[in-house]
Amino acid sequence: MNNVLQGLMVPGFPHLAFPDVCSGSWQSFVTAMNQAAQRVDAAEPDLLVLYSAQWISVLGHSFQYAAHPQGLHVDENWHELGALPFAFEVERPLTAQAEALARQAGLATRLVDYEGFPIDTGTIVALRYLNAQRQRSVVLVSANIYASPEDCMTLGAAMAQAVEESGKRAVFINCSLLSHQFLNEAVSPESDRFSSPEADQWNQRFLGLLQQGSTQEALALAPDYIANAQPEMNLKGFYWMMGALNMPNRPADVMAYGPFWGTGAVVLAY
Fold first, then answer.
1. Alpha helices, DSSP H only, in the chain?
2. So what's the pLDDT on residue 71?
3. DSSP states of 121-137 as a string?
4. What pLDDT sits at residue 1?
5. Mean pLDDT across the chain, nearest whole number?
6. Which residues contact 259 (CB under 8 A, 6 or more apart)?
7. Strand (E) positions, 47-95?
């Protein structure tokens, strides 16, 4: 896949769009997101392909097809942070081809063509860093709650094939978390911690394999990891990225890892 330049995994907390509230341990994620943005700029992609675990769908895999999504978004959990303005351009021809290829591969798919369709926090936060100047078009796909790991890998592979056929160059972004248990209390950067020591241990065990380039071993561990640490959407975004990157055997570069409101957040790059 010569035109799939990089893969990134990033968190989608709204706090990251407001660096002033990200002191202490959360500052490391702001720094890492800026580093990820520098990597994207250096790769000079034509477009970004993004899978957000916060855009949940139930009737198959949805592809954003509205040409110019824009508006104001308020996070449903942390509304006190304020409005998140957003605007970006959708790569429509490539989106249509990716949807068609995924459908031909046996997946349930649909195009979403409605300018007022809600855009999730994770997508907005990721694009705020990685497409800050709106210089690149975007392909967005939803997280189908019923998709199996194999479905997610098929989806990623189909989207990578669409990129190759287009001749354009893309960075693939998985916006999701590792362990996904929130602390049910007010949390500051100074008081933040993992929901449990075991969640942290499982996260680090999984990340350690990725840092070694032991992708097959990580996939073998995944069912136990999911059962014990409950990563966001059961790692669907990770499986999608593995399909898009064709199971990379090179080490992942972890730029930041730690707790964020009790969950396990990471910024990593392939």
1. 27-43, 92-104, 121-130, 149-166, 197-211, 215-229, 236-244
2. 96
3. HHHHHHHHHHTTT--SE
4. 64
5. 97
6. 25, 192, 193, 194, 195, 200, 265
7. 47-57, 61-64, 70-73, 84-87
